[in-house]
Amino acid sequence: MGMKLDHIGFVVERIEDFVRVLKAIGFETVTNPVGDYDKNVNASFVPVGEKDDIYLEVLEPIGEKSAVYNFLRKTGGGLHHLCFEVDDIEKVSGELEEKGFKMVSPPTDCTAYDENLERTCEGVTKISFFLLPNRLLIELLEKGR
After folding, report:
1. Domain containing residue 123
2. Three-state secondary structure call for residue 8
3. Residue 104: left if φ>0, alpha if ψ -120 to 50, beta else—which one?
4. What is the pLDDT of residues 14-69, one digit of tens each?
5. How far is residue 108's CA from residue 141's CA, in Å, rounded to a whole number?
6. How far is CA 118 from the centre of its chain?
7. CA-CA distance, 19 to 76, in Å (whole number)?
8. Total of domains in the chain
9. Whole-prediction pTM value?
10. For position 77, which CATH number holds?
11. Rounded distance, CA 87 to CA 54, Å?
């Protein structure tokens, strides 16, 4: 089960405010916010890896039905999840379930990822979420090829 860190997700009230702070500390490149209307969030990505291969994902809720709305209200925002790229999301998701990890969201399409990072690919990127015993939320990501 090979995994590679893809991004670190942060939940904020307003993307533009958080991006202003990131730019002030030297992270100039930021994608324009893209809406993922299945999850009711806007997302921007900030490359932080040496080869633009690791990102900070900045999420803001779109209304009270957002997947991150309650997190923002309870915590004030901040670190939300770690995302790991995998080659076969169905296989890895099954392996994590077999090991007793709680699946929060089964593998589902996430075209917003490809749109946000301006990736052109034939397949659709898929994501799933798991809650680890220490309450850490991880996301699995299988990039569209």
Report:
1. 4-142
2. strand
3. alpha
4. 999 999 999 999 998 999 999 988 889 999 999 998 877 899 999 999 999 998 99
5. 10
6. 16
7. 17
8. 1
9. 0.93
10. 3.10.180.10
11. 17
